[in-house]
Specification:
GO terms for molecular function: nucleic acid binding; RNA-directed DNA polymerase activity. This protein is of the alpha+beta class. The protein has two helices and six strands; from the N terminus they run E-E-E-E-E-H-E-H. The relative contact order is 0.15.
Length: about 120
């Protein structure tokens, strides 16, 4: 795109903003998940940080974890995203697809167990 600058009487080229294929239209529609590993251990002995971020609002959930296995990640996701905000349409991550597949295979079992009467 070409724009004109009145003060300097020059034209300049401005790159248009890139359109995203999937746009956020509500909070927790798209969630990013990332791990910060290794960190200095916390007093509780946790060397890892699991970050979940909502793309619409920028809201971040940070959980210090001792492990970043499939079950631990599924628990954090279920307790902090799914129960509070519902299921997102998209979860972005940079982990191995097989790892994330295991995470999301554990979720239905956890959710059904948590809904059983006690």
């Amino acid at each position: 795109m070409l724009t004109w600058c009145d003060t300097s009487s020059h034209a300049k080229i401005v790159a248009p903003a890139r359109a995203s294929l999937i746009s956020e239209d509500r909070p927790f529609h798209i969630v990013s998940m990332d791990f910060v590993i290794p960190l200095p251990r916390t007093r509780q002995g946790n060397p890892a940080l699991l970050l979940l971020q909502d793309h619409f609002t920028g809201f971040v959930i940070a959980k210090a974890k001792a492990e970043v296995g499939e079950l631990e990640v599924a628990k954090v996701f279920e307790e902090n995203v799914f129960r509070r905000f519902g299921a997102p349409s998209l979860v972005r991550h940079d982990r191995d697809p097989m790892f994330m597949s295991e995470v999301f295979q554990k979720l239905p079992e956890m959710i059904s167990r948590s809904q059983e009467p006690r």
